[in-house]
Design goal:
about 200 residues, mainly alpha
């Protein structure tokens, strides 16, 4: 039922995107846009702890958005990511990293029906590596790779909010990297603050 309301899935979805959208889907897309606003605000932060805290709020909104779209790979990947944001603020231990990566891989094996279904999990593994293994610019470079994978997936499922979110995050993350390079003392302090 949702697939018919959503219109054609895949890269051609934008053709009659708004024309064929039901009121239900408009509300679901609006929720995705709210999540986009939260994430884009977070992406402007130079401080890693503040950035990750804001991402927790945006991730919660995206989970609901993806569930309502029946985009299960995205919903489950984003749910694991929500836990990752919390855990990365409290524990930066090797075992936590491997549990998260194992969760992404096992859920991808269970849920992905095609190459597109793997993309959210692959992107999340790259971001997890960034969060647990790096800080500052290297962490944000991992985020850039993640955003590319999520853009491709978001176009495939027809999530306007997620498309704009990841394009916006790509632009803002790139700008933030440039800002950090110009002011090295502003580079993230996440690693040092976490016990």
């Amino acid at each position: 039922m949702l697939n018919r309301q959503r219109g054609k899935r895949g890269f051609g979805f934008m053709t009659n995107f708004f024309e064929n959208m039901s009121p239900y889907m408009m509300a679901v897309q609006a929720l995705g846009l709210v999540a986009t606003a939260v994430f884009l605000y977070g992406a402007t932060q130079k401080n890693d702890r503040k950035l990750l805290g804001i991402y927790i709020a945006g991730s919660s909104l995206l989970i609901v958005h993806f569930i309502l779209m029946t985009a299960w790979s995205a919903a489950v990947s984003e749910t694991i990511t929500l836990f990752r944001f919390y855990l990365s603020r409290v524990y930066r231990k090797n075992w936590v990293y491997w549990i998260l990566v194992g969760s992404y891989v096992s859920m991808a094996a269970l849920l992905a029906k095609d190459i597109f279904g793997i993309l959210p999990f692959a992107g999340s593994i790259v971001a997890t590596t960034g969060v647990f293994r790096f800080s500052g610019i290297p962490m944000r470079l991992c985020f850039l790779m993640t955003e590319i994978l999520w853009v491709i997936y978001s176009v495939h499922i027809g999530s306007l909010g997620s498309i704009l979110l990841n394009l916006g995050l790509f632009a803002i993350t790139t700008t933030t990297i440039i800002r950090i390079k110009k002011s090295p003392s502003a580079e993230g302090d996440f690693k040092e603050e976490v016990p």
